[in-house]
Every structure is written in structure tokens, then in C-alpha cells.
Amino acid sequence: MGFVCSFWACAQTAPIAFIGARIVPVEGAEIANGxxxxxxxxxxxxxxxxxVTVPAGARRVDVKGKVIMPGLVDSxxxxxxxxxxxxxxxxQPDVRILDSVDVRDTRIQKAxxxxxxxxxVMPGSGHVLSGQTLYLKLRxxxxxxxxxxxxxxxxxxxGLKMANGTNPRKxxxxxxxxxxTMAMARDLYIKxxxxxxxxxxxxxxxxKMPPRDLRLxxxxxxxxxxxxxxxxxxxxxxxxxxLRLQKEFGFKLVLxxxxxxxxxxxxxxxxxxxxxxxxxxxxxxxxxxxxxxxxTASALDKAGVLVGFHTDDGVTDSRLFLRSAALAVxxxxxxxxxxxxxxxxxxxxxxxxxxxxxxxTGKDADFIVLSGDPLSVYTKVLETWVDGVKVFDRTTxxxxxxxxxxxxxxxxxSELHLHETEEVDQ
Amino acid sequence: MRSLLLLAxxxxxxxxxxxxxxxxxxVYTMAxxxxxxxxxxxxxxxIERVTTGAPPxxxxxxxxxxxxxxxxxxxxxxxxxxxxxxxxxxxxxxxxAPMQPELRAIDAYDxxxxxxEWVRGFxxxxxxxxxxxGILVSGQTMIxxxxxxxxxxxxxxxxxxxxxxxxxxAREAGAKAPGxxxxxxxxxxxxxxxxxEYRAKxxxxxxxxxxxxxxxxxGELPLLVTVHHANDIVSAIRVGKEFGIKLVLxxxxxxPSVLExxxxxxxxxxxxxxxxxxxxxxxxISFETATKLKAAGIxxxxxxxxxxxxxxxxxxxxxxAVAAGHGLNFEDALASVTIDAARLLGVxxxxxxxxxxxxxxxxxxxxxxxxxxxxxxxxLIDGVxxxxxxx
Lengths: 426, 391
Prior knowledge:
heterodimer; A: alpha/beta; six-stranded mixed sheet; 17 strands; globular; B: alpha/beta; nine-stranded mixed sheet; seven-stranded mixed sheet
């Protein structure tokens, strides 16, 4: 993945030391009076003030009285206006939202204002399979390529979006019942297995390879464990249907929303699969969300499930993402687990935990500076840093407008959103 | 209407014979400075007094860290828009005609709707609810307490306001009227002119629609106009002044652009939920609008509004909390969901503050009510303990 060095800006090369903050590293204990040093887009040192030697030539930033924690990771969002599958079919694994995300959508700046630094942008849930998702780092970008995460094998990081329950159940080219939904999904995975067998049988001989099939190529990536399925599912029985599907085909899976998760927490725990929970202000709005509870994340965590949170932006606003952790604490979740769920847990679900999700030497310099406790309604995100570059600064008028809203806060950016360049080599 | 109101009161009082003293480390009465180690003394469903010291004998004591008046939600669609969000439980808008002020909220309010219990669990005790936005004139609203198993038991004002919408939200599809902003205003003015003529007539044949507009003209029923764009806010004010009616600006996402005009109009604002989604007519929505209305001296209250998807209902406590998190002073934020809301709705004689003689509607919290991690630990309505499970 590495830090991106585009023609207009590089991640800082001189070290910057943030001195005096309460640091919540997520991995390891909180540091009361900490120092964080970043250089070249990476964290180069972290620890209590006495234990960290600030390198010579480092720019020193006084962050006394403030809180620093890892940049938030949102495991399910729709910022950038992604367009996935169209109405022509219920399963469209060939569709990539890479080909539709608009980096000038101000919701991306608003997500930066909310402290989000890594995000899984997905197509919607109105299909059994609505397309390929994108894992993005919220760098300031002019084109989508600036935000992409490249995997070691050269592929672009992302998952596959699926859904069951009421949303894709609409008849016509789509399933009319829950049973049909799962049958259509199984049918596609069986075709994917057969396609993979043909590829394996060719054994590298191009003349024996099956004709290219964009739909099944994506399914083979899933079957090979190279692409994680993010499965929208709310109702207790729908969650179990997804677990059944996963068991049959053995792919990597993140349960998404998991509203009734508290009812089937033991079954989810037994599967060993993670759950990304949505936190909403009330139950209902649709039949399958009628039993929504603030205790879901807590119940899943206590059962031993890896729990994360997501915004589902625009269902909830990226600028209010920290509220999810706080309301889960209200519902009984331990505070450290709730902060873990905002960061490292989600990073694990995106297979990016070696790079993001916690503050540790060697990891990407993705962090946020907060005015106070992460779970307080009165706390504000002051700065957001990605790869050692400041992408949100509340003291600037433009960024404050993204944080608070008002005139101009929704206008699509025709010009590059650039920040003060003191930590950027031109 | 008065006699029915009294009946409802008597019913409530009968169920709340218990004498209760609510003790709070701090009691925000919303009628003067907060009382430390305060005691809200309650009998017959009413507040006897707010005091300090030992509770009187014969009173059951309920203790909490923070005590506030029961919260007042200045506008929602609770009870008309059920949690399942299916056609069977959505009664906020009727689409056979663009103006139907004669539709009464009491004829649609489901007092057993699950979401009523949900919001009450966070401290909401009074809600101004009824027909929703999304059509030029959708119908009437009512004011309820979040208790009772029938609309009659819940209602404290059976007919409160007439709900209207201007701007893109009022547009009908295809060739149906109104198709433009100007047409919507022309249609509304025509009905109000007709009602003026109706009022002047001596011999009247009954016409529910015109009768209701006549009550708007007389000032009995304010016109609650949901409106977001700055130009539509100004249009609403223009119509209100032409007919000399009581008008309440509802939603008002772009209010910060026309603060002077709103202030000069004297009309109050029932502001959109602080966390209302940005997009379409609310593209320029801001978390700071409540703070700006306060600074401008414009009377306002917060609302939960109408939600067409998830979450199906908002919680007024959370909307006030986010306003407080974005610059609104703590007590101003609390006032916007208690006494200021009660005044705006014309029910401050009964609810919205903890004062002798008022309804014993009390919310209790185990910390700062606005902090996400605080729990609501109890709710009293008319002196009856409605819930005590922390939420």
C-alpha cells in the first residue's frame, strides 16, 4: 500500500512530533502524556513523553490537553456516490464501484471531518449481489486512484457486497422470497466453483483456459479468499442463512448491520466470523429492523465475536461516527472494546490491520486529534491525518464548514481540496 | 374540546394517586437556576413544589443524579407513522388531494405504537405529532403525552396546528397541481381567500376544509409550514403576513441565510432534527443552526420530524445533545426540548418545566443527559412512574 507521492504533494519527509496528548493507541494501554512521532507517512515512535526521544530536526506540535487516537475505519459506507449494479439482474459480481466513485463528493471531506481515514465504500443492498466494493484511504485526491489501496499482488483492495432479507426481495429479475434469494446466491457460487475447476484443470495452459467471464472471475476471487464478502443482513434467521452460505462455500465474510445479532450471538461466535454493527436511534423503519437494540454490539462482543461499527453513510452521517461507539457503551459494551470496534476491528475485517487501525511503530500515520474524550458529545475532531498528511484541520474556514455544514458544504468540489502545506513537500 | 380535555385530566389524575418525591443531585427546573440536591414533590399527578431538604413523610422517594422536566418534542409524526414502515401503518400523508386540512390527527394516532414507548424511555413525555410534511397541506396535528392506550387518553391538545409544506416538498408528480413553487402558493392563498369569505358569511353550510382554514385565519390553529430553502422561508412569511395568521416555520434548514427576515416576522421556528440528513432541499443543513437562531433571539424548539426509513423515529434527547455538542449552551439546548418547546406549542401552563401546579412529567438521568453514555433512569408522566429500566 505505502504512502502515495503524487505530483502535487508528498507525505512529509521531516519528522513531526505530537507532544503531550493523551494517546489512545487501541493496541496497548492508554498513554497519559504521550508523544507520537511520524515521518515518511509512517509512525516512527509512540510512547510516554519520557520514553520517546524526539528526533533532531523534528517539528514539534504541542497537543497538551488533547486526545490522539487512530484514524477511524468505517467498514461500510456509501460516500462518493457509488453506483453499483443496475436493475437488470439480481446478482452482478462484475460491476465495480471503482468505475463510479466521485472523489469530489463533499461527503468524502465530511468523512475526513468525522475522523475517518479508511473506509469500505460499497454499492447498495437492493440486490442479492450488487458489485465489488472499494477500500479507500481518505487522502485528499483529485482522482479515485489517489485514494486506492494497492495490494502486494497488484490488485486494488476491495470486497464484494451481498444482501438478503427484505431489500433484494422484489420479484421480476430479483428474488421474490428469502428461499429464492439464497438459491440464487448458491447457484452463482456453484458456477464459480465449476469455473475455478476449469481454470485449475487448464493448469496454466492458456489454450485450455475457459473463456474469460468477468462475473465468475470475481466469484473465484471470493472462493480463493482474495475478496471478502460483506453481507447485509438484519433478521436473526437471515443472519443464519448467511452463515449457512458461508459454511457451504468457505469464503471470507463480514456480517454487515447484524441488527438481530443479539438473538443469535452464540451462533455467530461459533462461526468465528466478524460482525460490523450499525447503531441507529430507533428500531423499525423496515420489518427486519424492528428488534434493533443498543445492546447488540455488547452482546456480540461478550459472546466472543469480533465486533466493528459502520456509518452506512448516508444512513448515518460520517461526522457522527464516534457516536456509534458511545451509544454501544451506553448499551453495555466496554469502552476499550467500543474504541477497538471503531478502528482495529474494522481494519481486521478489511484485512488492513497490518497497516491501519492502531497506533504502533511502523504502521501508517493515520490518526486523529480530538478536543477531548472520544465518547463525549462535546468532543470535536480537530485534525485528521492520513499517511502523515493533514487532510482535515478544523481551524481552517473551509474544513470547519465541512465539519458543521451550512452554505457551500454540499457543493461538489471543482477544485482540488488542498490543505496547508507546511508538512508537505511541494 | 375543553370538557374532553378535562376528562382526560381527571383520568390521568385518578391513575396517579401516589405521592412521590423525586430527589436529584441537580434538578433543572427550567424555571430559574438549577437546584442542587433538589426535591420535586408530587401528588395527584401534579407538582406540589420544588424544594430541598428531607422528603416529606408518606412520599415514595425516587433518586437520580440529574432531574429534568419530561422532554417536549416540538414536532414529529409519532403514532401516525408506525415502526414497521409498511403501507398499513403510515398515515401521515393522504395523497388524493393536495390540501386536506380537515384531516384530524386524533383519528389516526395509534397510542399502542411501539415507538412511543421507545422515545419515552429516553425522557420524552410530550410530543406535538400529526400529519406530516410532503404535501401542500396534509392535515392537522395534535399534542400528546406519551402515555395512555387511546388517542383520547394521550391527547392534551386534540387539534393543535395545520401542517403545510412549501418548496420542492410540496410538488406533485406529473401534471397534478401544484407542480411549481408559485402554483403551491397560489393554491394556498386561494383557499385562505375562500376562508376569509366564508368567515364573513352569515349563513354557512358546513364545509370541513374551509372551516379549518377559517380557524387558521382566526388564529386558533397556527399554520405549521415545513420549508427549507431560504426563498421558501421568505415566501412562507409573505403568505403569513398577507393573511395575518399565526405561522410556525418548520424545518428551516437555510434559516441562517434569512435570520433577519425570520426575526422581523416574529414567527417561531421548529428547527429540523440536528442530525437530519443533508441532501436535496437540506443540502446546506448545519449542526450549528440552533446556535445561530439562539444568538439571533429567534424563538425556536427542536423536533424529531418525519423519517421515511431508518431510524423510523428520532429521539429528541439526542437531537438536543448534538446541538449542545455544536455550540448551543447546555441550558439553552435543554430549554429547546422542554420549556421553549412547551411555550411554542402553547402548553407551557402544563408542561416543560418543574414548577408548582404543573403536570408531574419528569425525566431522570445518571449523568449529563446529553452525553451519549448517560442513561435515562426513569420517567414520570402525570406523576405515574412509566419506566425505570435504564436506557
